[in-house]
């Protein structure tokens, strides 16, 4: 049986919730730590929660980071979710480990203050996205769609054309990034109800 989406299992991420949401869309998924299975997959999701260095180290030591990077270089469909999105960049102010370098840029911490007001970090809860550029990838994600966020760091792509959507939390930041068929979502689609399901369904059928 053909599997619609393969979720990369490197020990970091809420993979059960992602698989459950994919199932609710009517699509199939599998969880795999097998490099050959991931290499052969048509679409992969790179999940992630927690600290950047821990996740980056596990990807590197498992060899799965090289597999994900090769999939991206081949033009295959890749979706990074939350910390998985941040790992697509070169590195993070949170730690010292290198990221995958698929999308040039740095992951930065939210400022402690904006003007004279303290900014509550992490950014937690529902917020909207504003699309940037053309909508040929994941067209189901619309301006004003609301998604659920939990993060203290955000992606800062070196090339503004790699920003797919912007969200404002004290400062505007890239809540989605895109380079070729590689897409990152800072929010959690698996926790974002109808709009998250629509995003995953669009990814799984594109």
Summarize the structure.
The protein is 26% helix and 33% strand. It has an 8-stranded mixed sheet, with helices on both faces. A 3-stranded mixed sheet has the order 5-6-12, with no helix packed on it.
Structure description:
It contains 6 helices and 15 strands. It has 206 residues and is an alpha/beta fold. Strand 7 and strand 8 (117-118) form a beta hairpin. It is globular and about 55 Å long.
What features would you highlight for this structure?
206 residues; alpha/beta; eight-stranded mixed β-sheet; three-stranded mixed β-sheet; 33% strand
Would you tell me the overall average pLDDT?
96
The poorly predicted ranges are none
Percent strand: 25-35%
SSE order, one letter for each helix or strand: EHEHEHHEHEEEEEEEEEEEH
Distance between the termini: 18 Å
Distinct helical segment count: 6
Query: What's the total count of β strands?
Result: 15
Overall form: globular
Biggest sheet statistics = 8 strands, mixed
- Tell me the radius of gyration: 16 Å
Please write out the topology:
Blueprint: E1 5-8, H1 15-24, E2 29-32, H2 35-40, E3 43-46, H3 52-62, H4 64-73, E4 77-81, H5 83-86, E5 91-92, E6 105-109, E7 113-114, E8 117-118, E9 123-128, E10 130-131, E11 146-151, E12 153-157, E13 163-169, E14 171-179, E15 182-185, H6 193-205
Parallel strand pairs: 1-2, 1-3, 3-4, 4-15, 5-6
Antiparallel strand pairs: 6-12, 7-8, 9-11, 10-13, 13-14, 14-15
């Amino acid at each position: 049986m053909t599997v619609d989406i393969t979720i990369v299992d490197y020990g970091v991420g809420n993979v059960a919730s992602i698989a459950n949401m994919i199932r609710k869309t009517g699509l199939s998924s599998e969880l795999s730590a097998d490099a050959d299975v991931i290499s052969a997959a048509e679409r992969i999701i790179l999940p992630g929660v927690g600290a950047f260095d821990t996740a980056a180290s596990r990807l590197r030591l498992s060899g799965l980071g090289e597999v994900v990077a090769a999939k991206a270089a081949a033009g295959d469909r890749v979706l990074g979710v939350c910390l998985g999105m941040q790992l697509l960049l070169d590195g993070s102010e949170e730690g010292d480990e290198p990221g995958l370098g698929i999308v040039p840029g740095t992951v930065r911490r939210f400022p402690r203050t904006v003007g004279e007001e303290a900014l509550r970090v992490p950014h937690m809860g529902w917020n909207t996205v504003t699309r940037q550029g053309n909508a040929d990838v994941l067209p189901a994600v619309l301006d004003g769609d609301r998604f659920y966020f939990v993060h203290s760091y955000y992606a800062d792509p070196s090339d503004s054309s790699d920003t797919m959507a912007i969200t404002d939390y004290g400062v505007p930041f890239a809540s989605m990034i895109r380079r070729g068929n590689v897409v990152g979502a800072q929010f959690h689609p698996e926790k974002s109800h109808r709009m998250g399901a629509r995003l995953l369904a669009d990814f799984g059928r594109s």
